[in-house]
Amino acid sequence: QLQLVESGGGLVQPGGSLRLSCAASGFTSAYYAIGWFRQAPGKEREGVSCISSSDTISYYADSVQGRFTISRDNAKNTVLLQMNSLKPEDTGVYYCAAWGPLIGRCVLSPTVYNRWGQGTQVTVSS
User: Fold this and answer.
1) 94 neighbors 48 (Cβ within 8 angstroms)
2) What secondary structure, in 3-state letters, does the chain show?
3) Residues 15-59: pLDDT tens digits?
4) C-beta atoms surrounding 32 within 10 Å
5) Most exposed of 29, 70, 80, 112 (fewest Cβ within 10 Å)?
6) Distance between the two ends of the chain, CA-based, in angstroms?
7) Is 118 helix (H, G, I), strand (E, B) or coil?
8) Are 71 and 79 in contact (CB under 8 A)?
9) Of 2, 9, 21, 28, whose CA–CA distance to 114 is shortest?
10) Pick from 111, 91, 88: which is nearest to 99 by CA?
11) Within 10 Å of residue 11's Cβ, how many Cβ atoms?
12) Which tens digits make up the pLDDT trace of 99-122?
């Protein structure tokens, strides 16, 4: 069964950090573009970051540029999202998704991703 499972969410104070993990099973995530998305209450799902299957390309939303870092741990079939300097507006449910198999490409639009995890809640509040 092809599956993505997110973990690492929680409650953190503004300025704090979290590291989200996206663990893949049933397929090799290294061959796929992986994206991270978030959805706040009452808002549409938005792209946060993505990484291509070749790891040569990564994109970040302007709102997280310089604060978030996406990376892979292929030995664990996992994609990580390190989130630093968190702000209240980063609050939402974070999802990872896979698109592929592809080489050297990723996009921040959620419409092309065809495998999704169930999400993990991130709350930034004092």
Assistant:
1) yes
2) CCEEEEECCEEECCCCCEEEEEEEECCCHHHCEEEEEEECCCCCCEEEEEECCCCCCEEECCCCCCCEEEEEEHHHCEEEEEECCCCHHHCEEEEEEEECCCCCCCCCCHHHCCEECCCEEEEECC
3) 999 999 999 999 999 999 999 999 999 999 999 999 999 888 999
4) 25
5) 112
6) 40
7) coil
8) yes
9) 2
10) 111
11) 12
12) 998 767 999 999 999 999 999 999
| Cβ–Cβ < 8 Å for 37, 97 | yes
CA 71 from centroid of its chain's CA atoms = 10
C-alpha–C-alpha distance, residues 55 and 98, integer Å: 14
Q: Hey, is 31 helix, strand or coil?
A: helix
Q: What gap in Å lies between CA 84 and CA 33, rounded to an integer?
A: 23
30 DSSP 8-state letter: G
Task: Collect all residues with Cβ–Cβ distance below 8 Å to 84 and sequence separation of at least 6.
Answer: 17, 67, 68, 69
